[in-house]
Design the sequence.
């Protein structure tokens, strides 16, 4: 069974709480919260006040926060305070990864490191023993609804092998273009957590879409 983290970037923001509750009730274990700064990626999404409101409305929901921002270090405390359960930041951001990890731990959150499609999995090697999760992007970050890049599969396999060889226990998450067609390959390659936005919220029956992905 895969863990499902629906990306609420594709939800209907007029009924955001309702959409969140729908996917959680359907079996999603967490909510994927995509933060974009218009600098690290060419798009702007939502930030701390939105997370704070959702956390207030749904205090038991686990928020998997994906920071697609140039300076994660400046915002770790704010997102942790707003209710993040896990904070993913990009290895390609402009801050020192060790400093960001330290800040995430100090703030009491789980820590995830994320790589874009052009970044080799090997670049994560020195950080793996400090991580709760590795997020492998299977599209260029910035927009929902893009086509899955299968190069992510080789990275998942390599990271799964490294995890075993080194006796580590971080989770492997994949994000971008994950749907009923691509998800089985992701699970086969080692993904523990599937992020899906459009495949869930644009489906005629989002709850059924969660169920179908979770059954993999
Ligand atoms: C892309 C985001 C993804 C996005 C996934 O930059 O990180 O989480 O919402 O959307 P889909 O599942 O539609 O590719
Ligand atoms: Zn994401």
Sequence:
């Amino acid at each position: 069974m895969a863990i499902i983290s629906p990306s609420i970037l594709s939800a209907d923001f007029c009924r955001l709480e309702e959409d969140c509750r729908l996917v959680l009730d359907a079996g999603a274990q967490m909510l994927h919260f995509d933060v974009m700064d218009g600098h690290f990626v060419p798009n702007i999404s939502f930030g701390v006040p939105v997370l704070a409101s959702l956390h207030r409305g749904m205090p038991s929901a686990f928020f998997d926060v994906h920071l697609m921002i140039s300076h994660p270090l400046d915002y770790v405390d704010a997102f942790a305070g707003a209710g993040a359960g896990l904070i993913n930041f990009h290895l390609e951001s402009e801050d020192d990864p060790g400093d960001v990890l330290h800040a995430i731990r100090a703030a009491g959150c789980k820590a995830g490191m994320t790589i874009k499609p052009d970044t080799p999995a090997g670049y994560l090697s020195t950080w793996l023993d400090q991580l709760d999760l590795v997020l492998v992007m299977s599209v260029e970050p910035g927009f929902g609804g893009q086509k899955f890049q299968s190069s992510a599969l080789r990275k998942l396999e390599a990271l799964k092998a490294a995890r075993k060889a080194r006796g580590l226990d971080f989770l492997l998450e994949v994000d971008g273009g994950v749907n009923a067609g691509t998800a089985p390959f992701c699970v086969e390659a080692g993904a523990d957590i599937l992020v899906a936005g459009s495949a869930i919220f644009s489906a005629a029956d989002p709850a059924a879409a969660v169920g179908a992905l979770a059954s993999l």
